Amino acid sequence: METVNAIGRRKSAIARIYISEGKGKITVNNRAFEEYFPLQQIQNIIQQPINLAEAGNKYDIIVNLKGGGTTGQAEALRLAIARAIVKIKPESKEALKSVKLLTRDSREVERKKAGQPGARKRFQFSKR
Question: Which domain holds residue 90?
């Protein structure tokens, strides 16, 4: 099997991954996956498509992550892994699609407007 690449985005985070046959090792920005994402909850988010497709220790994944925070990066990586697994194993598409792992979450932060403290918040109104 040759190397398969995919891109995942979430908020302002971008994950580019390269997946190839191996022993299940995930490397994020030249660091171990557990070191880059120390929280177990976020590790579970990332491993969700791998577990659903039953691709446990079959593939090595090399990840380049840019932008965003921890959660945005984790969810961008989850989308990229799901897309790459579908390229490798098309029969796993239904399982991943039913749990909505192939859908890009398009919610972005709304910009702050001029003359206001935030995007939607207003300063207190005073009649007099």
Answer: 4-98
The 10s digit of each residue's pLDDT in 40-79 is: 999 999 999 999 988 878 899 999 999 999 999 999 999 9
pTM of this structure: 0.91
Residue among 47, 53, 45 at smallest CA distance from 86: 53
Tell me, yes or no, whether 35 lies in a domain: yes
Residue 69, in any domain of the structure: yes
Name the domain count of the chain: 1
Provide the CB-side half-sphere exposure for 19 (13 A, CA). 25
Whole-angstrom CA distances from 47 to 34, 43, 79, 117, 128 are 11, 6, 11, 39, 58
